[in-house]
């Protein structure tokens, strides 16, 4: 069984991002970049399935700038067997990413595609769903448990007030939630080994698809700053302020 794991290069989750001075986008100059955390979880799950003898190959793919090779090397160090970068200088929307992934799926014919439920930069939560629609594959989003059973996959999802378990026939699409697993760290020997693993680079122009944007980013701004709070002396003062100033109680 072959598993394809799309991995996105995003701003590291520890970085506090700032808008550019003209508010046209997020300032990515000299910002630490990393593998999107939900993609790390997707990769960890794929590697665990391979280690359990249920998968034979794990292929990591990314769509982005040439620097995305760094994140693919990390994916290789974490256990992917080989990787493909579809290179583009543009920041593509989920629809365009899904179109690229569709082409890669046509070529690679994986049995299972595990994506993150969302990329933490745009918080779109769209790519897996769009890809499933394009491929007409069954999908289970926000997986908290994944079990392979011959020609199907069982996926447990944490939904409001309980757990839902779905059975999907393969090939299928799964997107990962935070509690699916705890990703490993790459060991130094594996980082060294990853340098020798296969990493193909395909220019997006070779794919012959329309990756033009459908939306226009108008502005990126910080949330409005909040006024400093005050400390009240007594409960009576508090109730008075809630009633007469904040007007949140009557
Ligand atoms: P999004 O729909 O943008 O929130 O992303 C959801 C998931 O789609 C990510 O966790 C990745 O698995 C995949 N994905 C999104 N953008 C890319 C990209 N540029 N390259 C590879 N995978 C991506």
Layout of secondary structure:
Layout: E1 2-6, E2 9-11, E3 33-35, H1 37-51, E4 57-64, H2 69-77, E5 82-87, H3 94-108, E6 112-116, H4 127-135, E7 139-149, E8 152-159, E9 162-169, E10 172-176, H5 188-194, E11 199-203, H6 235-244
Parallel strand pairs: 1-4, 1-6, 4-5, 5-11, 6-10, 7-10
Antiparallel strand pairs: 2-3, 7-8, 8-9
Helix pairs in contact: 2-5, 3-4
Bound molecules: adenosine monophosphate (AMP).
Residues 6-8, 36, 38-39, 42, 62-64, 94, 97, 115-116, 118-119, 122, 124-128 line the site of adenosine monophosphate (AMP).
Rounded Rg:
22 Å
Q: Kindly state the mean pLDDT as a whole number?
A: 96
Q: State the major sheet.
A: 9 strands, mixed
Total strands: 11
Ligand types: adenosine monophosphate
What is the CATH homologous superfamily assignment? HUPs
Which ranges are low-confidence, i.e. pLDDT below 50, for 5 or more consecutive residues?
Answer: none
Give the overall silhouette: globular
